[in-house]
Amino acid sequence: MSGRVERFLGGSPIRVGINLVLMSIAVGLLLSWFDLSPRRLIDGTIDAVMRIIDTVFGSIDNVIQYFLLGAAIVVPIFLISRVLKVGRRDDRY
């Protein structure tokens, strides 16, 4: 049983616990130095995800508007050119 626990943890439980405590203190000091808190990190992450979602779906909305604007010009020109081409009877094909 002890071998399974050590294999899962990557070492003896006491040594892993000491390493986790020391790394937690170091990360806590670093976050304190940057004036960050877990709550601010979570809120910032959520805000970033929401901004990304807004940007992606806002971009899709813009693409649809650009498509419709361009189609209002391109489709009539295409139809006119097809009608004029049918009247010419070009036998190259």
Automatic annotation (TrEMBL):
Q: Where is the DUF6460 domain?
A: 52-87
Tell me which domain of life the UniProt entry assigns to the organism this sequence originates from: Bacteria
Q: Which keywords does this chain's UniProt record carry?
A: Membrane, Transmembrane, Transmembrane helix
Ranges annotated as spanning the membrane: 12-34, 63-84
Question: Does the keyword Membrane belong to this entry?
Answer: yes
* Name the UniProt record assigns to this protein: DUF6460 domain-containing protein
Species of origin reads Fulvimarina manganoxydans
